[in-house]
Amino acid sequence: MLRRTLIGTLAAIAVALVIGIPTGIIETPWYTRMTPVLWWNYPVWALSSIMTGALAATYVRDPAVRVPPTQGGKTFVGSMLSLFAVGCPICNKLVVMALGVTGALTWFAPVQPLLAIGSLGLLGYALWARRRATIACRMPASAITPEGSPTRRS
Hints:
- The chain is mainly α.
- The chain has one domain (2-141).
- It has helices at 2-23, 41-58, 73-86, 93-136; strands at residues 65-66, 139-140.
- A two-stranded antiparallel sheet has the order 1-2.
- α2 (41-58) runs antiparallel to α3, α2 packs across α4 (93-136) and α3 packs antiparallel against α4 (93-136).
- It starts with a helix and ends in a 14-residue tail after the last strand.
C-alpha cells in the first residue's frame, strides 16, 4: 500500500510538471505564455495529474496477487488531451501550423474546454476500468506459472 501511494504521488507530480511547465501554468524563465492562464486550466491540470497518478498506482504489483494486464492507451490519450486543453492556443506550434494564429484563437481556443472534459472523462473511465479489472480479476500468485499464465487443474 505504501509503495502504491509513493508511486502514485511521484507519477502525479511528474505529470503535473510535464503538463505545467510547457503550457506555462508553472511559470519558468524558459517559456513565456502568450495568452493568460484561464481559471479552469488549474483544476483540469490538477485533476488530470491526480488521476494519472492514481492510474499509475494501480499498476504497482502486489506480490500476493496477480492481476492480468490491461491496455494503457486511455491514460496516455487522456493525459495528452489535458496538455492540449490547458496549453496556450497560439503557443502550440502544431495548432498554429494547421490553423494559423487567427485560427488558433478563433477555432482552437473555444474547443479547449471540450478537450478538457474529454480528457478528464477518458482518465476517469480508464481509472474506473482499471480498478474494476484489478478487483474482478484477482488471482492468487500461487495460481500463476512463471510464464505468467494461469495453471490448469485437471
